[in-house]
Design a protein that fits this description.
The chain is of the alpha+beta class and 615 residues long. The chain contains 21 helices and 26 strands. The strands form nine sheets. Strands 1, 2, 3, 4 and 5 form a five-stranded antiparallel β-sheet that branches. It has a five-stranded antiparallel β-sheet with strand order 17-16-26-25-24, with helices on both faces. Strands 6-13-14 form a three-stranded antiparallel β-sheet. Strand 4 and strand 5 form a beta hairpin. Helix 5 runs antiparallel to helix 6. The termini are far apart.
């Protein structure tokens, strides 16, 4: 072969090799890119297999990512520079750490060629330049104070108080099922989740069953002491002055649930405490503190240096219209009750909600504000307003027979009483159903709805928590219009909305309820002076000589109206007991579900409320 031919072959082979290297890429760069891509994708095991020490690399990569709370990583590879069997490149690392955010820095990636194969040289400094053997990245959290829920005078309604945590140390439990069942029976909690938590807990992990106030713990201690392997620990928790104090309204603060973790979108760490219902849940973002968070280097799980600090902030307080003294009186009025009952108090001049009490204590349902019921004879305040606007005089004789028929249906008075021909003021005082039914034809079908609107019924209430404004639909026939006169038919009201009815009589104008001091002030039209004064005098007669004499011994000028509302079926049907009242610049509504009689059941509770206020 001629020299020219040999030269051409060499040129062709060299060109082919260059073309191959161009298609295949630089081997060192490919290895670096492979490692970077897998590490960025979160596949630490696959990335480790591309190093010269896969076992050590896999353990370290996993430990560092876990130490950063499962952070995601974007690693950007710089230019790879080869020198013989070695190569280096700059790695730009950008972590996204839960509840901390972005954190970036550069490290150096080194490679080594052995047996014609390039591999990443493993070193802890690849993860961070300040890491060495036996160290890893981690995070710490310094808690800040949760925002307080305050009363109208800016005094805390809830604050950190001492509690006793009752549960078990997982590693000390010999029979998880027995311990879980014993705690469940003693504390009235679910045994299944508790057993699973004990079985899945670490050796030193304290598994909580419940946190008790010291007084409750002392009461239950004999039962707890009999549970095998049960343990206790002293701690603190955000609590109201007493267990029952506005519980359904205020809510509670407790460890976050799985569902809440998903809803809050990663802003809360597992094990953190969050609002569970009521205002604590509704204003979680406002009340929740943001802890100071740090990225640290740990050695044997102990932080030895800080790499990054994110400042935290305390939670922001929430100022309510609640009055602690009035709330305490409301709780005293319902003390000892375990049935479904509610009491709500408002300030007539402003609409401020001063107290919200609910029973049973164990329930988180705020029936005082969102429960809807037939208002029964408490609605006669509105019926009377409509009659007064139609020209009725309270001295006019309106007979109160034992029964009366309207549209083919027979109506009767509660417990079958009868007054006979008496002035209307007497009919109102003794809450005579048949007298009001007899007056139904005097009113237009929409008269009750128009009057009710001026007293706040049927309005949409805009509050920080669910609240029902009630409904007053027009009656379609004589039976429905007759039933509506005595607060039946499809008329519905909440205890809050009925307290506002009493407040409207007291003030002479409806004011929208305000639960937070930041809520806007809104008011309805002023009542005619004659209507306001007449209703005030009629409601005073209820207390002095009618169905509300249970309040006759209460100090001050108390005025009120009882209600006994039928619901469901049966003969006779069950009834809810109501009483609404006002004194000075304070109005109240009391409801007892299935309470039989407003005058005999609800009125005494209203009396207890006012008496407690006067102590």
């Amino acid at each position: 072969m001629s020299a020219l031919a040999v030269a051409l072959v060499v040129i062709v082979l060299a060109g082919a090799f260059v073309a191959y290297r161009s298609l295949a890429g630089e081997p060192a760069t490919d290895a670096a890119k492979g490692f970077t891509a897998r590490w960025s994708a979160g596949d630490d095991a696959a990335a480790a297999r591309l190093t010269d020490d896969p076992k050590a690399a896999a353990a370290a990569l996993r430990a560092n990512r876990r130490g950063l709370d499962g952070a995601s990583l974007r690693a950007t590879l710089g230019e790879v520079e080869e020198s013989g069997d070695s190569a280096t490149a700059t790695l730009s690392l950008r972590w996204r750490i839960p509840r901390i955010g972005g954190w970036g820095y550069d490290s150096t990636l080194r490679l080594r060629k052995s047996d014609d194969e390039w591999r990443v040289r493993w070193s802890p400094k690849l993860v961070h330049p300040k890491l060495g053997d036996g160290t890893r990245l981690g995070t710490t959290s310094a808690p800040k104070a949760r925002g307080e829920i305050l009363d109208r005078d800016r005094r805390p309604l809830m604050r950190e108080r001492s509690v006793v945590r009752v549960g078990a140390v997982a590693g000390e439990v010999s029979r998880p099922a027995v311990t879980a069942r014993g705690l469940a029976d003693a504390l009235d909690v679910a045994a299944g989740p508790l057993e699973r938590a004990i079985r899945g807990g670490g050796k030193q992990q304290f598994v909580d069953a419940i946190a008790l106030r010291p007084s409750d713990y002392r009461r239950l201690r004999p039962l707890i002491d009999r549970v095998p392997d049960a343990s206790t620990a002293e701690s603190t928790a955000m609590l109201a002055p007493s267990r029952e104090f506005a519980r359904a309204l205020l809510g509670a603060v407790a460890p976050v649930t799985k569902e809440q973790l998903e809803k809050l979108g990663g802003r809360v760490a597992p094990g953190a405490s969050v609002g569970q219902w009521g205002l604590q849940e509704r204003f979680e973002r406002r009340l929740a503190p943001v802890p100071e968070r740090q990225v640290v280097i740990r050695e044997e799980n102990v932080p030895i240096s800080t790499l990054l600090t994110r400042a935290g902030r305390p939670g922001r307080s929430l100022i309510t219209a609640i009055d602690r003294r009035v709330q305490a009186a409301a709780e005293a009025a319902l003390a000892g009750r375990s049935d479904e009952a509610a009491l709500v108090a408002v300030q007539p001049s402003t609409g401020d909600v001063l107290a919200v009490a609910n029973r049973p204590v164990e329930s988180t349902y705020n029936r005082a504000m969102e429960g809807t019921y037939a208002p029964g004879s408490t609605f006669k305040v509105v019926s009377t307003a409509a009659l007064l606007r139609d020209g009725l005089a309270v001295g006019e004789t309106v007979s109160c027979p034992r029964t009366i028929e309207a549209g083919g249906r027979r109506f009767k008075n509660f417990e079958g009483g009868a007054e006979g021909p008496v002035p209307f003021r007497r009919d109102f005082a003794v809450s005579c159903n048949t007298a009001f039914v007899a007056l139904a034809p005097r009113l237009a079908p929409d008269a009750l709805g128009r009057a009710a609107h001026d007293y706040g019924l049927g309005r949409e209430l805009e509050l920080a928590v669910p609240a029902a404004g009630g409904q007053v639909p027009p009656g379609e026939d004589a039976v429905e219009r007759a039933a509506a006169m005595i607060g039946q038919h499809e008329i519905l009201a909440s205890p809050l909305s009925m307290a506002l009815v009493a407040a409207t009589v007291a003030e002479g104008r409806w004011h929208a309820p305000r639960l937070l001091t930041a809520d806007p002030r809104q008011a309805g039209p002023a009542l005619a002076a004659s209507e306001r004064d007449t209703l005030r005098s009629l409601m005073r007669l209820v207390v002095t000589e009618g169905s509300g004499t249970a309040l006759s011994g209460v100090g001050g000028d108390v005025r009120g109206k009882s209600g006994t509302a039928e619901f469901g079926g049966g003969d006779p049907p069950p009834t809810h007991a109501w009483f609404i009242a006002f004194r000075d610049d304070l109005a109240v509504a009391v409801l007892v579900e299935r309470g039989r009689s407003g005058g005999s059941v609800a009125a005494p509770l209203a009396a207890r409320f006012f008496t407690a206020l006067d102590r």
